[in-house]
Amino acid sequence: MKFGILLTSIYDGSTPARRQRDEHAELVATAEQAGFSLMVAGQHFLGAELRYFQPVPWLTYMSRHAPSMDVATGIILLSMVNPVDTAEQLSTLDVLTGGRARFGVGLGYSPHEFDAFGVAKGERVPRFEESLELIRQLWSGEKVTFHGRFTGVTDARPAVRPLQAGGPPVWIGGQAAGAVKRAARLGDAWYSPPFPTHDELYALHRLFTDTRAEAGSRPAKEFPVRRELLIADSREDAIEAALVRYRARYETYRKWGLNGQNTPVGKSGEELREDIDQRFILGSPEECAAELHKLGAEIGMTHFVYKPHWPGLPHAEAMRQLDRFGSEVVPLLKD
């Protein structure tokens, strides 16, 4: 099992940008020392509540502070961005990191982002699938003529290509059944977000493997999983701390339009506590290690992507959680 650190935003525009940069640099450097082998950064546009720096330059800079770590976009909003630009951006990232990039992609969900890029609701999936097809062709090294519904090239053979033959592995994110089936058909892996419950995660993984088998594809070599994880001296203490984190982060998800299948939004009271219990990995280092081991043993999780940063909480708390994970959880999993 490998460990990844998620470089997410916890600040709006009122916090100095250098502070966010320096805190993320400290996170990846500490994570590398703790045995982490992956850093992940996602993408959003025009967010007022949380400031997302664009992932390719961000990961390129952060890799200077943790040069042994792989990098992954988690995720690029492929239904919105230009596929030619994205193909060359990811190729550049792969070259600059010595062939250690992974291409995490998804549809997105925020209406204000789709509106900004002029993407109609019915175009999201076809734009995504067409873009992914063109990107892979541009990474092939062969001459490409491609005329799709939304974009096209003629006799193109770009000189900007990735180090990895055929391009970085494609991790497709999403928690709805349709997104998981799309990952099975078109991706190299399904990148599971933290939103499904523990039971839903197992069911969606079965859907992924069954769909892949039905399509005649080989079993996926990687299964990256994001779960919210909180270490405390007792499970009850962990749940109480998770309530603070949940309210701060998931309220932003709701504002940005996250909804639909296997998505936790709008919960309160005792229902919220139950929701956290069903989605978070919580408790002592021993309890957290046992849950991670179970995910590896039972559904083949290869990468656990961990998010220590939460809005409203100090960076020192993120570092404390990361330190406990590296010094108390990781050794138990190695044993």
TrEMBL record:
Keywords assigned: Flavoprotein, FMN, Monooxygenase, Oxidoreductase
Biological processes per GO annotation: alkanesulfonate catabolic process
GO molecular function, one term: alkanesulfonate monooxygenase activity
A Pfam cross-reference name: Bac_luciferase
Superkingdom of the organism of origin: Bacteria
Domain annotation Luciferase-like: ranges: 1-302
InterPro entries per UniProt: Luciferase-like_dom, Luciferase-like_sf, SsuD_RutA_monooxygenase
PANTHER family associated with the record: ALKANESULFONATE MONOOXYGENASE, ALKANESULFONATE MONOOXYGENASE-RELATED
Name recorded for this polypeptide: LLM class flavin-dependent oxidoreductase
Biological source species: Amycolatopsis acidicola
